[in-house]
Amino acid sequence: MMRLDVQPWGESLAELVDAARAAEAAGAGVAWAPELHRSAPVTAAAIAAGTARIGVGTGIALAFARSAMLTALTAADLDELSGGRFRLGLGTGVGRLNQDWHEVPCDRPVARLRDTVAIVRAVQAGGDPIAHTGVRSISVRGWRRPYPPARATTPIYLAAVGPGLVRLAGEIADGWLSHELCPPRHLRTRIWPALAVGIDRQGRDRGRFDVVAAACCSVAADPGVARRRAANVVGFYASVRSYADMFAADGFGEVSAAASRALRAGRPADSLGDLVPGAMVDAYAIAGTPAQCAARIAEYAPLADAVKLSPPSYGLEAEEVRDAQKSLLELVGSMP
To answer: What would you give as a GO molecular function for this chain, any one (predicted)?
Structure first.
């Protein structure tokens, strides 16, 4: 049976943890913590401390903005804090943000991410020395972590869009995470062909690899309200140059170009929903009545092990996000 995961929202960390508890009570499988306006590990720590059963993951933590050793130690600490419930989700981020926001290189992202995972696993495995040479390297002697781990290794999930990174996820990770706009047709035609190459390259069991799709899920009695709430999410991604080819291939290249121009002209990235037609919202988000949303979620079942659902939040007042999240969690609790 496909798992329903949640990316909880809160105006404060306390409210976010309350939402994670509500997701746990609704039967959600994992609460994922994103990294944009908050630190993903800190958010994951708050969720881990405030819940008892639900899985906890970073969805995602930036892989290059931290040293791989610090990432490994953070993952081990979070797994201990959560009692073995933690999943380390890593992503490259886009080049401009790595360089301009975090002052770190992002060249050769496939090799750099491969090295990151190798170093994380080497640190968690222990031993002396710890050494790895590549685009990212480590050389540690005379150090050993003195605390018993919750588990021997932390499951690692890689977020990936392009075929090279998707193949890498299938080859070396325990699971794959999508970005928020990943409809079933993309899973079928773009993701699974590349994942299968990576999984089969190592002779791995596909049944032991966790495929986590993601979707903005906007639930409302009025489908028009649901689409309006989700439009800014689609508009945000439409303005990001990294996704331009995806939108163009789906026939929405002109909308993507318009969103990019509006962003360069000074429009806030979370306020571009008015540029997004309803058909584009329906193409990339789950938006509608509870019955309509449940039917859309069910379309992922043959292709994914889980769907990470997030309420619409971009450009909305806090009270409206709360209402949207309440409706989403009610939907999760009502589904088998």
So the answer is: monooxygenase activity
> d(Cα 31, Cα 48) in Å, to the nearest integer?
9
Distance CA 234, CA 282 (A): 10
> What architecture is domain 1-159?
Alpha-Beta Barrel (3.20)
CB 328 within 8 A of CB 311: yes
Q: What is the number of alpha carbons within 13 Å of residue 58 lying toward its C-beta? A: 29
Coil/strand/helix, residue 303: coil
- Please answer whether residues 177 and 59 qualify as being in contact, where contact means their C-beta atoms are separated by less than 8 angstroms: yes
Distance of alpha carbon 65 from alpha carbon 92, whole angstroms: 9
Q: Which residues of 294-323 are buried (b: 16+ CB within 10 A; e: fewer)?
A: bebbeebeebbbbbbbbbbbbbbeeebbbb
What CA–CA distance (Å, rounded) separates 4 from 147? 33
Give the bridge partners for 55, in sequence order: 30
d(CA 76, CA 271): 38
Residue with tokens 């009502």: 334
* pLDDT tens-digit series, residues 191-218: 999 999 999 999 999 999 999 999 999 9
Per-domain residue ranges for the chain? Answer: 1-159, 212-335
- Tens of pLDDT, residue by residue over 246-280, are 999 999 999 999 999 999 999 999 999 999 999 99
User: pTM for the complete prediction?
Assistant: 0.96
